[in-house]
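Lab notebook, bench 4. The sequencing result for the construct came back, and we need a structural model before the next group meeting so we can plan mutations. Quick request posted to the team channel:

Model the 3D structure of this chain.
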Amino acid sequence: MTGAGTRAPAAVIKLGGRALEKAALRSVFAAELGSLAGAWRVIVVHGGGAEVTAVSRRLGHEPRFQEGIRLTTVEEMEVVDMVIAGSANKRLVRALNAAGVRAVGICGSDGPTLAARPEAAPPGTRTGRIEGVDTRLLATLIDAGYVPVMSPVCDDGAGGGVNVNADTVALRVATAIDADALLFISDVDGVRKDGAVLRRLDPAAADEEIAAGTITGGMVPKIRSSIAAVAAGVGRVHVGDYDAVGALHALLDGARGTVVAAPPAAAPAANLVR
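Done. Here's the predicted structure in C-alpha cell form:
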C-alpha cells in the first residue's frame, strides 16, 4: 500500500485486554508503537468487549456468547456502537496521538471498508460476518502517514448496525493487505499446555489443540483466525499479552507469546523486527 521502492512491512495489530482498557498501559503501548514508525506500516484493530458487557448489564441486557463470540441483540448493538466505535476507539486514538503517532479512528462502516451481514441464527442477531474488504481508505490513510485505528462495527448496507468479532476483522484486513505479521494482543500470554506457553504452532497442531480442549473460550476464535490467516498467506501470527515496554517488539520477534506459522520447512524462520 505504499509506492514502489518505499514498501515497509505491514503489520495488523489487534489490541484488547488491559493494554486497551488501562490508561497507563495504553500509553506505554502507544509509545512503543510509535517507535515502529517508518519501519512498519501499521493498522490497529481493537475490541472492547469487557466494557460492552459491563454497560450492557447496567442497562439490563445480559450478554450471551457462543464459542467466545458475542450474540449481539438489537438493544446491545446500540451499546456496541456507543462503546466500541465511540469511547474505546477515541481513548486509543488519543493515547496514540499523545505519543506522537498520527492516529485516525475509523470503523468498518467508514468507506465503507468492511461489507458485512448479520448471521442467520439466532433470529434477529446483529452479530455478523464480513463479506468483503475494500482497502482504499486504509491505503489512503497509510500513504498519507496516518495509522488507522479500526473498530469492528459495520453496517448491513441498509442502515442497520452489525457487530463483527474483532479477531475476524483483524484477520480479514491482514489478508486483504498481504500483511507480513498479524498480532493478537490480549491478557493471555499465549497458548498454554501443561503449564507452559507453546512458542510455536503450525496450523495442523493448532487444530489438534482446539479439538483436544487445550485451547478454549475466547482463545478459540483467535487461533482459528490465526490458522486462516496463515492459510491465506499472512507471514505469521503472534498471540500474546502486553504488560510492559518492550513487549511489542518481543512479540514481533517471536520471543514472547505463541507464533502460528507454516512448518519451518515450508516457511523458514525469520526475525520480523526490522
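The chain has nine helices and 16 strands.
Will bring this to the meeting.
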